[in-house]
Amino acid sequence: MKILMRADTHYSIVVRDTEYEKPKYTCSQVLAAVAVSMGSMIVGFSSAYTSPALVTMENSTSISVSEEQASWVGGLMPLAALVGGVIGGPLVDYIGRRRTILSTAIPFFIGWILIATAKIVHLVLAGRAICGLCVGIGSLAFPVYLGETIQPEVRGTLGLFPTAIGNIGILICYVAGKYLDWSQLAYLGSSLPIPFLILMFMIPETPRWYISRGRTEEARKALQWLRGPNTKIDNEIRDIALSDAEIGKDSSMAELFSLKYMKSIFICLGLMAFQQLSGINAVIFYTVKIFKMSGSSIDENLSTIIVGLVNFISTFIATALIDRAGRKMLLYISSVTMTVTLIVLGTFFYVRDTLNMEVSTLGWIPLTSVMIYLLGFSLAFGPIPWLMMGEILPAKIRGGAASICTAFNWLCTFTVTKTFHNIIVGIGPSGTFWLFGSICFIGLFFVVVCVPETRGKSLEQIENKMTGRKTTRTRRMSSIANIKPLPCGC
Predict the structure, then answer these.
(1) What is the C-alpha to C-alpha distance for residues 25 and 31, in angstroms, rounded to an integer?
(2) How many domains would you assign to the chain?
(3) Do 291 and 425 form a contact (C-beta atoms < 8 A)?
(4) By CB distance 3.0 to 4.6 Å, which of 187, 225, 461, 471 could disulfide with 457?
(5) pTM over 0.85
(6) How far is CA 405 from each of CA 17, 268, 409, rounded to the nearest angstrom?
(7) Tell me, what's the pLDDT at 21?
(8) In what residue span(s) does the Major facilitator superfamily (MFS) profile domain sit (predicted)?
(9) 58 lies in which domain range?
(10) What's the pLDDT tens digit per position in 317-361?
Protein backbone atom coordinates (compact mmCIF):
# COMPACT_ATOMS: atom_id res chain seq x y z
CA MET A 1 0.00 0.00 0.00
CA LYS A 2 1.33 3.40 -0.94
CA ILE A 3 0.48 6.33 1.35
CA LEU A 4 0.55 9.83 -0.12
CA MET A 5 0.78 12.68 2.40
CA ARG A 6 -0.28 16.19 1.52
CA ALA A 7 0.87 18.85 3.95
CA ASP A 8 0.76 22.05 1.91
CA THR A 9 -1.91 23.51 4.19
CA HIS A 10 -2.45 23.67 7.93
CA TYR A 11 -3.87 20.16 7.85
CA SER A 12 -2.87 16.85 6.28
CA ILE A 13 -4.94 14.69 3.93
CA VAL A 14 -4.11 11.02 3.66
CA VAL A 15 -5.01 9.42 0.33
CA ARG A 16 -4.53 5.70 -0.12
CA ASP A 17 -3.61 4.50 -3.59
CA THR A 18 -4.55 0.90 -2.96
CA GLU A 19 -3.79 -2.03 -5.18
CA TYR A 20 -6.90 -4.19 -5.04
CA GLU A 21 -7.00 -7.93 -5.41
CA LYS A 22 -8.57 -7.89 -8.83
CA PRO A 23 -11.87 -9.76 -8.60
CA LYS A 24 -12.97 -12.12 -11.30
CA TYR A 25 -15.52 -11.34 -13.99
CA THR A 26 -18.49 -12.58 -11.98
CA CYS A 27 -21.94 -13.61 -13.18
CA SER A 28 -23.41 -11.30 -10.53
CA GLN A 29 -22.13 -8.22 -12.34
CA VAL A 30 -23.39 -9.56 -15.67
CA LEU A 31 -26.82 -10.11 -14.12
CA ALA A 32 -26.81 -6.57 -12.69
CA ALA A 33 -25.85 -5.10 -16.07
CA VAL A 34 -28.51 -7.14 -17.91
CA ALA A 35 -31.21 -6.28 -15.35
CA VAL A 36 -30.60 -2.53 -15.60
CA SER A 37 -30.17 -2.72 -19.37
CA MET A 38 -33.61 -4.29 -19.73
CA GLY A 39 -34.85 -0.84 -18.75
CA SER A 40 -32.81 0.57 -21.63
CA MET A 41 -34.58 -1.88 -23.94
CA ILE A 42 -37.91 -0.29 -22.93
CA VAL A 43 -36.40 3.16 -23.52
CA GLY A 44 -35.26 2.09 -27.00
CA PHE A 45 -38.64 0.55 -27.80
CA SER A 46 -40.39 3.73 -26.57
CA SER A 47 -38.17 5.93 -28.73
CA ALA A 48 -38.74 3.88 -31.88
CA TYR A 49 -42.48 3.25 -31.33
CA THR A 50 -43.78 6.26 -33.24
CA SER A 51 -41.90 5.36 -36.41
CA PRO A 52 -43.97 2.27 -37.34
CA ALA A 53 -46.99 3.10 -35.14
CA LEU A 54 -47.94 6.52 -36.52
CA VAL A 55 -48.35 5.14 -40.05
CA THR A 56 -50.99 2.60 -38.95
CA MET A 57 -52.46 5.00 -36.39
CA GLU A 58 -53.20 7.71 -38.95
CA ASN A 59 -54.88 5.13 -41.22
CA SER A 60 -56.77 3.42 -38.39
CA THR A 61 -60.56 3.26 -38.20
CA SER A 62 -60.54 2.67 -34.43
CA ILE A 63 -58.94 6.02 -33.53
CA SER A 64 -58.83 9.46 -35.13
CA VAL A 65 -55.46 11.23 -35.16
CA SER A 66 -54.73 14.54 -36.89
CA GLU A 67 -51.25 15.43 -38.15
CA GLU A 68 -50.78 17.90 -35.27
CA GLN A 69 -51.83 15.27 -32.73
CA ALA A 70 -49.47 12.79 -34.39
CA SER A 71 -46.58 15.21 -33.88
CA TRP A 72 -47.48 15.35 -30.18
CA VAL A 73 -47.50 11.55 -29.97
CA GLY A 74 -43.86 11.71 -31.05
CA GLY A 75 -42.88 14.87 -29.19
CA LEU A 76 -44.57 14.35 -25.82
CA MET A 77 -42.29 11.52 -24.71
CA PRO A 78 -39.05 13.57 -24.69
CA LEU A 79 -40.89 16.49 -23.05
CA ALA A 80 -42.03 14.20 -20.24
CA ALA A 81 -38.52 12.72 -20.11
CA LEU A 82 -37.18 16.21 -19.38
CA VAL A 83 -39.41 16.32 -16.29
CA GLY A 84 -38.41 12.77 -15.42
CA GLY A 85 -34.74 13.69 -15.55
CA VAL A 86 -35.31 16.47 -12.99
CA ILE A 87 -37.33 14.14 -10.74
CA GLY A 88 -34.81 11.32 -11.11
CA GLY A 89 -31.98 13.28 -9.51
CA PRO A 90 -33.51 13.57 -6.03
CA LEU A 91 -35.02 10.07 -6.30
CA VAL A 92 -31.72 8.24 -6.82
CA ASP A 93 -30.30 10.12 -3.85
CA TYR A 94 -33.14 9.75 -1.38
CA ILE A 95 -34.74 6.36 -2.12
CA GLY A 96 -31.74 4.70 -3.74
CA ARG A 97 -30.61 3.79 -7.24
CA ARG A 98 -32.26 0.36 -7.34
CA ARG A 99 -35.61 1.46 -5.96
CA THR A 100 -35.67 4.42 -8.35
CA ILE A 101 -35.17 2.05 -11.29
CA LEU A 102 -37.74 -0.38 -9.87
CA SER A 103 -40.26 2.44 -9.54
CA THR A 104 -40.33 2.86 -13.34
CA ALA A 105 -41.43 -0.71 -14.19
CA ILE A 106 -45.11 -0.50 -13.21
CA PRO A 107 -45.66 3.00 -14.70
CA PHE A 108 -44.06 1.75 -17.92
CA PHE A 109 -46.60 -1.08 -17.98
CA ILE A 110 -49.51 1.27 -17.27
CA GLY A 111 -48.38 3.69 -19.96
CA TRP A 112 -48.22 1.01 -22.63
CA ILE A 113 -51.60 -0.45 -21.64
CA LEU A 114 -53.16 3.02 -21.91
CA ILE A 115 -51.78 3.34 -25.43
CA ALA A 116 -52.79 -0.18 -26.48
CA THR A 117 -56.42 0.16 -25.29
CA ALA A 118 -56.93 3.80 -26.34
CA LYS A 119 -60.03 4.74 -28.31
CA ILE A 120 -59.19 8.44 -28.28
CA VAL A 121 -55.85 10.09 -28.93
CA HIS A 122 -55.77 11.72 -25.49
CA LEU A 123 -55.22 8.32 -23.87
CA VAL A 124 -52.35 7.67 -26.27
CA LEU A 125 -50.83 11.01 -25.24
CA ALA A 126 -51.32 10.14 -21.56
CA GLY A 127 -49.56 6.82 -22.07
CA ARG A 128 -46.70 8.47 -23.93
CA ALA A 129 -46.34 11.05 -21.13
CA ILE A 130 -46.14 8.33 -18.46
CA CYS A 131 -43.60 6.34 -20.48
CA GLY A 132 -41.62 9.53 -21.14
CA LEU A 133 -41.48 10.32 -17.42
CA CYS A 134 -40.02 6.86 -16.80
CA VAL A 135 -37.57 7.26 -19.69
CA GLY A 136 -36.22 10.47 -18.11
CA ILE A 137 -35.86 8.89 -14.68
CA GLY A 138 -34.20 5.81 -16.14
CA SER A 139 -31.78 7.74 -18.35
CA LEU A 140 -30.28 9.26 -15.20
CA ALA A 141 -30.57 6.23 -12.89
CA PHE A 142 -29.25 3.47 -15.19
CA PRO A 143 -25.69 4.82 -15.64
CA VAL A 144 -25.45 5.81 -11.98
CA TYR A 145 -26.32 2.26 -10.87
CA LEU A 146 -23.89 0.60 -13.29
CA GLY A 147 -21.11 3.07 -12.54
CA GLU A 148 -21.36 2.25 -8.84
CA THR A 149 -21.56 -1.54 -9.14
CA ILE A 150 -19.33 -2.73 -12.01
CA GLN A 151 -15.63 -3.16 -11.34
CA PRO A 152 -13.22 -1.02 -13.44
CA GLU A 153 -11.68 -4.01 -15.27
CA VAL A 154 -14.98 -4.82 -17.03
CA ARG A 155 -16.75 -1.47 -16.85
CA GLY A 156 -16.10 -0.82 -20.54
CA THR A 157 -17.62 -4.14 -21.60
CA LEU A 158 -20.60 -4.25 -19.26
CA GLY A 159 -21.08 -0.49 -19.48
CA LEU A 160 -21.91 -1.05 -23.15
CA PHE A 161 -24.92 -3.20 -22.26
CA PRO A 162 -27.47 -0.35 -21.87
CA THR A 163 -26.60 1.08 -25.28
CA ALA A 164 -26.51 -2.32 -27.00
CA ILE A 165 -29.70 -3.64 -25.40
CA GLY A 166 -31.39 -0.27 -25.94
CA ASN A 167 -30.63 -0.66 -29.65
CA ILE A 168 -32.09 -4.16 -29.49
CA GLY A 169 -35.28 -2.52 -28.20
CA ILE A 170 -35.28 -0.22 -31.25
CA LEU A 171 -34.71 -3.20 -33.55
CA ILE A 172 -37.51 -5.23 -31.91
CA CYS A 173 -39.90 -2.32 -32.40
CA TYR A 174 -38.96 -1.97 -36.08
CA VAL A 175 -39.27 -5.72 -36.78
CA ALA A 176 -42.56 -6.09 -34.90
CA GLY A 177 -43.88 -2.90 -36.49
CA LYS A 178 -43.72 -4.57 -39.90
CA TYR A 179 -46.37 -7.06 -38.80
CA LEU A 180 -48.31 -5.36 -35.97
CA ASP A 181 -50.50 -2.27 -35.91
CA TRP A 182 -50.08 0.54 -33.37
CA SER A 183 -52.27 -1.13 -30.71
CA GLN A 184 -50.70 -4.57 -30.99
CA LEU A 185 -47.25 -2.99 -30.93
CA ALA A 186 -48.18 -1.20 -27.68
CA TYR A 187 -49.28 -4.52 -26.16
CA LEU A 188 -45.83 -5.88 -27.04
CA GLY A 189 -44.32 -2.84 -25.31
CA SER A 190 -46.36 -3.58 -22.18
CA SER A 191 -44.74 -7.01 -21.90
CA LEU A 192 -41.18 -5.64 -21.66
CA PRO A 193 -41.44 -4.26 -18.08
CA ILE A 194 -42.27 -7.75 -16.75
CA PRO A 195 -38.80 -9.36 -17.17
CA PHE A 196 -37.28 -5.99 -16.26
CA LEU A 197 -39.13 -5.98 -12.92
CA ILE A 198 -38.27 -9.62 -12.16
CA LEU A 199 -34.55 -9.14 -12.86
CA MET A 200 -34.36 -5.92 -10.83
CA PHE A 201 -35.67 -7.76 -7.76
CA MET A 202 -32.71 -10.14 -8.06
CA ILE A 203 -29.96 -7.52 -7.70
CA PRO A 204 -28.92 -5.38 -4.69
CA GLU A 205 -28.74 -1.66 -4.08
CA THR A 206 -25.36 -0.07 -4.83
CA PRO A 207 -22.73 -0.20 -2.08
CA ARG A 208 -22.02 3.51 -2.58
CA TRP A 209 -25.60 4.48 -1.78
CA TYR A 210 -25.59 2.31 1.34
CA ILE A 211 -22.33 3.95 2.44
CA SER A 212 -23.83 7.42 1.88
CA ARG A 213 -26.64 6.44 4.26
CA GLY A 214 -24.28 5.03 6.90
CA ARG A 215 -25.44 1.45 6.28
CA THR A 216 -21.97 -0.10 6.10
CA GLU A 217 -22.96 -3.71 6.75
CA GLU A 218 -25.52 -3.69 3.96
CA ALA A 219 -22.92 -2.08 1.70
CA ARG A 220 -20.52 -4.94 2.46
CA LYS A 221 -23.16 -7.55 1.64
CA ALA A 222 -24.06 -5.83 -1.64
CA LEU A 223 -20.41 -5.50 -2.71
CA GLN A 224 -19.66 -9.11 -1.74
CA TRP A 225 -22.60 -10.27 -3.89
CA LEU A 226 -21.33 -8.21 -6.82
CA ARG A 227 -17.67 -9.24 -6.55
CA GLY A 228 -18.17 -12.90 -5.65
CA PRO A 229 -18.15 -14.77 -2.32
CA ASN A 230 -14.38 -15.37 -2.21
CA THR A 231 -13.25 -11.87 -3.10
CA LYS A 232 -11.60 -9.60 -0.52
CA ILE A 233 -13.54 -6.31 -0.47
CA ASP A 234 -12.12 -4.47 2.56
CA ASN A 235 -9.95 -2.09 0.52
CA GLU A 236 -12.71 -1.29 -1.95
CA ILE A 237 -15.22 -0.60 0.82
CA ARG A 238 -12.76 1.76 2.49
CA ASP A 239 -12.05 3.64 -0.73
CA ILE A 240 -15.77 3.96 -1.47
CA ALA A 241 -16.19 5.53 1.96
CA LEU A 242 -13.28 7.94 1.35
CA SER A 243 -14.65 8.93 -2.04
CA ASP A 244 -18.14 9.45 -0.63
CA ALA A 245 -16.74 11.71 2.08
CA GLU A 246 -15.05 13.86 -0.58
CA ILE A 247 -17.89 14.01 -3.13
CA GLY A 248 -20.54 14.27 -0.44
CA LYS A 249 -19.91 17.98 0.05
CA ASP A 250 -22.88 19.62 -1.67
CA SER A 251 -22.22 22.65 -3.83
CA SER A 252 -24.47 25.66 -3.95
CA MET A 253 -26.17 26.93 -7.08
CA ALA A 254 -23.97 30.05 -6.95
CA GLU A 255 -20.84 27.88 -7.04
CA LEU A 256 -22.33 25.75 -9.83
CA PHE A 257 -22.51 28.81 -12.08
CA SER A 258 -19.18 30.32 -11.05
CA LEU A 259 -16.90 31.46 -13.88
CA LYS A 260 -14.26 28.73 -13.44
CA TYR A 261 -16.86 26.00 -14.02
CA MET A 262 -18.75 27.63 -16.90
CA LYS A 263 -16.34 26.40 -19.58
CA SER A 264 -16.97 22.76 -18.68
CA ILE A 265 -20.73 23.25 -18.53
CA PHE A 266 -20.73 25.18 -21.82
CA ILE A 267 -18.87 22.37 -23.62
CA CYS A 268 -21.25 19.73 -22.26
CA LEU A 269 -24.33 21.76 -23.23
CA GLY A 270 -22.84 22.36 -26.69
CA LEU A 271 -22.22 18.65 -27.25
CA MET A 272 -25.75 17.81 -26.07
CA ALA A 273 -27.22 20.47 -28.36
CA PHE A 274 -25.35 19.30 -31.47
CA GLN A 275 -26.16 15.67 -30.60
CA GLN A 276 -29.91 16.31 -30.74
CA LEU A 277 -30.03 19.14 -33.31
CA SER A 278 -28.34 16.77 -35.75
CA GLY A 279 -31.87 15.40 -36.16
CA ILE A 280 -31.15 11.93 -34.79
CA ASN A 281 -34.42 11.49 -32.91
CA ALA A 282 -36.41 12.86 -35.83
CA VAL A 283 -34.83 10.15 -37.98
CA ILE A 284 -35.46 7.43 -35.36
CA PHE A 285 -39.03 8.55 -34.53
CA TYR A 286 -40.09 9.03 -38.16
CA THR A 287 -38.01 6.49 -40.08
CA VAL A 288 -41.02 4.93 -41.82
CA LYS A 289 -42.37 8.36 -42.83
CA ILE A 290 -39.00 9.35 -44.29
CA PHE A 291 -38.91 6.30 -46.54
CA LYS A 292 -42.58 6.72 -47.42
CA MET A 293 -41.97 10.36 -48.44
CA SER A 294 -38.98 9.33 -50.55
CA GLY A 295 -41.04 6.94 -52.67
CA SER A 296 -38.22 4.42 -52.26
CA SER A 297 -38.64 1.14 -54.11
CA ILE A 298 -37.60 -0.67 -50.93
CA ASP A 299 -40.40 -1.56 -48.51
CA GLU A 300 -40.33 1.16 -45.84
CA ASN A 301 -40.84 -1.25 -42.93
CA LEU A 302 -38.02 -3.47 -44.21
CA SER A 303 -35.87 -0.35 -44.48
CA THR A 304 -36.45 0.49 -40.83
CA ILE A 305 -35.42 -3.03 -39.83
CA ILE A 306 -32.16 -2.63 -41.76
CA VAL A 307 -31.64 0.79 -40.13
CA GLY A 308 -32.22 -0.70 -36.67
CA LEU A 309 -29.72 -3.46 -37.40
CA VAL A 310 -27.10 -0.93 -38.55
CA ASN A 311 -27.71 1.14 -35.41
CA PHE A 312 -27.17 -1.97 -33.27
CA ILE A 313 -23.97 -3.07 -35.02
CA SER A 314 -22.48 0.43 -35.04
CA THR A 315 -22.53 0.46 -31.24
CA PHE A 316 -19.83 -2.20 -31.14
CA ILE A 317 -17.72 -0.38 -33.75
CA ALA A 318 -17.79 2.73 -31.56
CA THR A 319 -16.76 0.72 -28.50
CA ALA A 320 -13.75 -0.74 -30.31
CA LEU A 321 -12.52 2.67 -31.49
CA ILE A 322 -13.41 5.18 -28.76
CA ASP A 323 -10.30 4.57 -26.62
CA ARG A 324 -7.96 4.12 -29.60
CA ALA A 325 -8.64 6.97 -32.00
CA GLY A 326 -9.55 9.54 -29.34
CA ARG A 327 -12.73 11.53 -28.71
CA LYS A 328 -12.02 14.48 -30.99
CA MET A 329 -11.00 12.42 -34.02
CA LEU A 330 -14.19 10.35 -33.79
CA LEU A 331 -16.24 13.53 -33.39
CA TYR A 332 -14.60 14.92 -36.55
CA ILE A 333 -15.47 11.78 -38.51
CA SER A 334 -18.98 11.72 -37.06
CA SER A 335 -19.67 15.37 -37.95
CA VAL A 336 -18.43 15.04 -41.52
CA THR A 337 -20.30 11.76 -42.07
CA MET A 338 -23.62 13.16 -40.82
CA THR A 339 -23.17 16.40 -42.77
CA VAL A 340 -22.53 14.62 -46.08
CA THR A 341 -25.33 12.05 -45.70
CA LEU A 342 -27.93 14.65 -44.68
CA ILE A 343 -26.96 16.85 -47.64
CA VAL A 344 -27.27 13.84 -49.98
CA LEU A 345 -30.67 12.96 -48.49
CA GLY A 346 -31.84 16.57 -48.84
CA THR A 347 -30.59 16.69 -52.43
CA PHE A 348 -32.57 13.54 -53.26
CA PHE A 349 -35.80 15.20 -52.11
CA TYR A 350 -34.87 18.45 -53.90
CA VAL A 351 -34.30 16.68 -57.22
CA ARG A 352 -37.55 14.75 -56.85
CA ASP A 353 -39.85 17.50 -55.52
CA THR A 354 -38.44 20.77 -56.89
CA LEU A 355 -36.84 19.69 -60.16
CA ASN A 356 -39.54 17.03 -60.72
CA MET A 357 -36.99 14.56 -62.03
CA GLU A 358 -37.58 10.81 -62.14
CA VAL A 359 -35.84 9.13 -59.19
CA SER A 360 -37.48 5.69 -59.18
CA THR A 361 -34.13 4.09 -60.00
CA LEU A 362 -32.50 5.92 -57.08
CA GLY A 363 -34.73 4.50 -54.35
CA TRP A 364 -31.67 3.04 -52.65
CA ILE A 365 -30.28 6.51 -51.83
CA PRO A 366 -32.57 7.29 -48.82
CA LEU A 367 -31.86 3.93 -47.19
CA THR A 368 -28.10 4.15 -47.80
CA SER A 369 -27.96 7.75 -46.58
CA VAL A 370 -29.84 6.99 -43.36
CA MET A 371 -27.71 3.89 -42.71
CA ILE A 372 -24.43 5.79 -43.08
CA TYR A 373 -25.87 8.72 -41.10
CA LEU A 374 -26.73 6.41 -38.18
CA LEU A 375 -23.31 4.78 -38.40
CA GLY A 376 -21.68 8.20 -38.18
CA PHE A 377 -23.90 9.28 -35.29
CA SER A 378 -23.34 6.09 -33.27
CA LEU A 379 -19.60 6.36 -33.84
CA ALA A 380 -19.21 9.55 -31.79
CA PHE A 381 -22.04 12.05 -31.37
CA GLY A 382 -24.25 9.35 -29.85
CA PRO A 383 -22.06 8.09 -26.96
CA ILE A 384 -19.35 10.77 -26.55
CA PRO A 385 -21.47 13.68 -25.19
CA TRP A 386 -22.60 11.43 -22.32
CA LEU A 387 -19.08 10.07 -21.80
CA MET A 388 -17.51 13.53 -21.74
CA MET A 389 -20.20 14.82 -19.38
CA GLY A 390 -18.69 12.51 -16.77
CA GLU A 391 -15.12 13.36 -17.76
CA ILE A 392 -14.96 17.16 -18.00
CA LEU A 393 -17.44 18.26 -15.30
CA PRO A 394 -15.44 18.96 -12.10
CA ALA A 395 -16.21 16.64 -9.19
CA LYS A 396 -17.54 19.37 -6.90
CA ILE A 397 -20.34 20.40 -9.29
CA ARG A 398 -20.68 17.16 -11.26
CA GLY A 399 -24.07 16.21 -9.80
CA GLY A 400 -25.88 19.49 -10.36
CA ALA A 401 -24.23 20.17 -13.71
CA ALA A 402 -24.99 16.65 -14.98
CA SER A 403 -28.66 17.11 -14.06
CA ILE A 404 -28.76 20.40 -15.99
CA CYS A 405 -27.08 18.83 -19.04
CA THR A 406 -29.43 15.82 -18.99
CA ALA A 407 -32.51 18.04 -18.80
CA PHE A 408 -31.15 20.22 -21.61
CA ASN A 409 -30.60 17.13 -23.77
CA TRP A 410 -34.25 16.10 -23.40
CA LEU A 411 -35.38 19.67 -24.10
CA CYS A 412 -33.48 19.58 -27.39
CA THR A 413 -34.95 16.14 -28.15
CA PHE A 414 -38.46 17.47 -27.61
CA THR A 415 -37.80 20.54 -29.75
CA VAL A 416 -36.56 18.47 -32.70
CA THR A 417 -39.24 15.76 -32.57
CA LYS A 418 -42.13 18.16 -31.99
CA THR A 419 -41.13 20.58 -34.75
CA PHE A 420 -39.92 18.01 -37.30
CA HIS A 421 -43.31 17.76 -39.05
CA ASN A 422 -43.80 21.55 -38.97
CA ILE A 423 -40.35 22.16 -40.44
CA ILE A 424 -41.04 19.69 -43.25
CA VAL A 425 -44.31 21.50 -44.02
CA GLY A 426 -42.57 24.88 -43.88
CA ILE A 427 -39.37 24.30 -45.88
CA GLY A 428 -39.93 20.84 -47.35
CA PRO A 429 -38.00 17.60 -46.82
CA SER A 430 -34.97 18.87 -48.73
CA GLY A 431 -34.71 22.06 -46.64
CA THR A 432 -35.23 20.10 -43.42
CA PHE A 433 -32.37 17.68 -44.04
CA TRP A 434 -30.13 20.48 -45.32
CA LEU A 435 -30.87 22.36 -42.09
CA PHE A 436 -29.83 19.38 -39.97
CA GLY A 437 -26.75 18.93 -42.16
CA SER A 438 -25.76 22.58 -41.68
CA ILE A 439 -26.05 22.19 -37.90
CA CYS A 440 -23.77 19.12 -38.05
CA PHE A 441 -21.25 21.18 -40.05
CA ILE A 442 -21.31 23.94 -37.42
CA GLY A 443 -20.87 21.21 -34.80
CA LEU A 444 -17.59 20.24 -36.49
CA PHE A 445 -16.16 23.71 -35.84
CA PHE A 446 -17.45 23.62 -32.26
CA VAL A 447 -15.49 20.41 -31.68
CA VAL A 448 -12.33 21.82 -33.32
CA VAL A 449 -12.36 25.04 -31.26
CA CYS A 450 -13.95 24.12 -27.92
CA VAL A 451 -13.82 20.41 -27.11
CA PRO A 452 -10.68 19.10 -25.33
CA GLU A 453 -9.17 15.66 -25.96
CA THR A 454 -9.61 13.50 -22.86
CA ARG A 455 -8.29 10.14 -24.04
CA GLY A 456 -5.73 8.65 -21.67
CA LYS A 457 -6.09 11.41 -19.08
CA SER A 458 -7.21 11.01 -15.50
CA LEU A 459 -10.22 12.94 -14.26
CA GLU A 460 -7.88 15.01 -12.12
CA GLN A 461 -5.74 16.03 -15.12
CA ILE A 462 -8.85 16.99 -17.08
CA GLU A 463 -10.22 18.98 -14.16
CA ASN A 464 -6.89 20.81 -13.73
CA LYS A 465 -6.93 21.79 -17.39
CA MET A 466 -10.56 22.94 -17.34
CA THR A 467 -10.35 24.96 -14.12
CA GLY A 468 -6.64 25.89 -13.96
CA ARG A 469 -6.37 24.33 -10.50
CA LYS A 470 -3.28 22.46 -9.27
CA THR A 471 -3.54 19.36 -7.12
CA THR A 472 -1.51 16.29 -6.26
CA ARG A 473 -4.39 13.91 -5.78
CA THR A 474 -4.94 11.22 -8.40
CA ARG A 475 -8.57 10.22 -8.81
CA ARG A 476 -9.21 6.52 -9.39
CA MET A 477 -12.98 6.36 -9.29
CA SER A 478 -15.22 6.03 -12.34
CA SER A 479 -16.52 9.25 -13.86
CA ILE A 480 -20.05 7.88 -13.90
CA ALA A 481 -19.84 6.67 -10.34
CA ASN A 482 -18.94 10.17 -9.20
CA ILE A 483 -22.13 11.70 -10.59
CA LYS A 484 -24.44 12.72 -7.77
CA PRO A 485 -27.93 14.03 -8.45
CA LEU A 486 -29.02 17.64 -8.06
CA PRO A 487 -30.25 18.16 -4.47
CA CYS A 488 -33.94 19.00 -4.00
CA GLY A 489 -33.10 22.36 -2.51
CA CYS A 490 -31.23 23.58 -5.59
Answers:
(1) 11
(2) 2
(3) no
(4) 461
(5) no
(6) 32, 7, 6
(7) 47
(8) 32-455
(9) 25-203
(10) 876 776 677 778 889 999 999 999 999 988 988 888 888 777 677
